[in-house]
Amino acid sequence: MTTTASTAANTAAPGTVTTWNIDPAHSAAEFKVKHMMISNVKGKFTGLSGVLKLDETDYTHSVVEASIPTASISTGDDKRDGHLKSADFFDAEKFPAMTFKSKNIDSDGGPNYTVTGDLTIRGVAKSVTLAVEDVSQPSKDPWGNTRIGLSGSTKINRKDFGLAWNSALETGGVLVGEEVTISLDIEFVKA
């Protein structure tokens, strides 16, 4: 049965929903995209922030929101990073963050979930579905904080979000592929 996260969070029994914040030091958003149609270029974003409202009795009733600073992009090449931050791609000065807000969470069994929500890049919001795996059980760190972790992934078409810059190749094809694979490794700390 599919339950929308916003409705479910409002109907959860009192005291079962807890707040968890993304730990930016232990979280990353990574991506890969085809370069010249022959290999993948990989990159990452840092400085993630966000909050998980976790229904501890039924994770499918939870809600998550996250923000990723676009200027934090790193592909290992300063010139390419500068181009990606420009108006040709992320336009980081005008659009300083990408955001995700969950709308629905379904259990795939065990520690795996399907999370659907709105991803906003360059002011364009589109529904995406994340395959979330390995949601850990809460665990205490050496300093008394309670943490959980998860991994997730999705694929998007960058043109859907206004990331349309490209260059045709003499041999046919284009310099930058349209499909982008996004991988997330997120650690949350209980507030």
The CATH topology corresponds to Lipocalin
Task: Tell me the name of the CATH homologous superfamily.
Answer: Lipid/polyisoprenoid-binding, YceI-like
> How much β-strand is present in the residues?
over 45%
Radius of gyration: 18 Å
Mean pLDDT: 83
- How many distinct domains? 1
Number of strands: 11
User: Structural class of the helix and strand makeup?
Assistant: mainly beta
CATH arch. level architecture: Beta Barrel
Low-confidence stretches: 1-12
Give the H and E element order: HEEEEEHEEEEEE
How does the major sheet shape up?
A: 8 strands, antiparallel, barrel
CATH domain class name? Mainly Beta
Spatial order of the strands forming the largest sheet? 1-4-5-6-7-8-10-11
Report the total helices. Answer: 2
